Amino acid sequence: MKTITVAVINQKGGTGKTTTTINLGSALSKLGHKVLLLDLDPQSNLSYSLAASDPDNTLAEVFLGSKSIQDIIVEKDGLWIAPGSNELVDIEISLVQQPERELFLKKILAQVKGFDYILIDCPPSLSVLTLNALTAAQEVLIPLQMEVLTLQGLDQIMRTVQKVRKAFNPKLKIKGIVVVMFDVRRKLSQEVLEYLQENVKEKIFRSYIRLNVKLAEAPSFGKSVLDYEPASNGAKDYKALAEEFVES
Ligand SMILES: Nc1ncnc2c1ncn2[C@@H]1O[C@H](COP(=O)(O)OP(=O)(O)O)[C@@H](O)[C@H]1O
Ligand SMILES: [Mg+2]
């Protein structure tokens, strides 16, 4: 079985990375795929949002070599999760001094078998943890909000991907851009989207994610929006995205 590993990146915080990792992952699992979510952000919002935090079993221990990845993976609502923790801050610092520091996660994931998709929720920076994700992944998924500075941010992401291709991962592919938190009533959102469609050669998924309060509420219940409120626009949008995602 071939596993497709996807890094969900954007160097800004609050741009929908965690929400997209969780809900795209959940939608993919409901389509019958076996999905592992990796929480690589020291803020560990993904682990909290799925009530999967466990201070003794986190990716930080796996990076340190005191646990194997199999030891820390947990299952929730049909989704598999490798939780993170704030200790990843220390990992980040200690990695900087290591030889081959960008290759740790790739080696860790070489031990993981049996998943159709591994989605990596990255920190909001182009840090060494993010470089690990980009080196371990085959594909990159970029959630983008339709704001004035969106294009500038996208440019920085593309330059980082280009650097990673040169140095560590020549086959790294941009899976596509997902438009998130789209406000259908706001003229600016539509204008930025049109600009993006005309000026960016990367794939922009047709299925965009609308602003939807259920997406923001679901984490308090430790669930994806598909389990929390399956009839919501948030659930519908991520389901549509998942269908397009597997076909692309
Ligand atoms: N489509 C959406 N509609 C409403 N709120 C959203 C949506 N997507 C994300 N949010 C909320 O926006 C905030 C930032 O999203 P998050 O996924 O945590 O971003 P990141 O992981 O990039 O920092 C969170 O509070 C989240 O619940
Ligand atoms: Mg996040």
Order of helices and strands: EHEHHHEEHHEHEHEHHHH
What is the number of helices? Answer: 12
Largest sheet: 7 strands, mixed
- Total DSSP E strands: 7
The rounded Rg comes to: 17 Å
Structural category: alpha/beta
Give the CATH topology. Rossmann fold
CATH superfamily descriptor:
P-loop containing nucleotide triphosphate hydrolases
Per CATH, the class reads Alpha Beta
Q: Judging by the overall fold, what is the CATH architecture?
A: 3-Layer(aba) Sandwich
In words, what does this structure look like?
The chain has 248 residues and is of the alpha/beta class. A seven-stranded mixed sheet has the order 3-4-2-5-1-6-7, with helices on both faces. Helix 1 crosses helix 12. The longest helix is centred in the middle third of the chain and has 18 residues. The chain starts with a strand and ends with a helix. It binds adenosine-5'-diphosphate and magnesium ion. The site of adenosine-5'-diphosphate has 17 residues, from helix 1 and helix 10.
Give the topology.
Layout: E1 4-8, H1 17-30, E2 35-39, H2 45-49, H3 59-64, H4 69-72, E3 74-76, E4 79-82, H5 88-96, H6 104-109, E5 117-121, H7 128-136, E6 139-145, H8 150-167, E7 173-180, H9 187-199, H10 213-217, H11 225-228, H12 233-247
Parallel strand pairs: 1-5, 1-6, 2-4, 2-5, 6-7
Antiparallel strand pairs: 3-4
The chain binds adenosine-5'-diphosphate and magnesium ion.
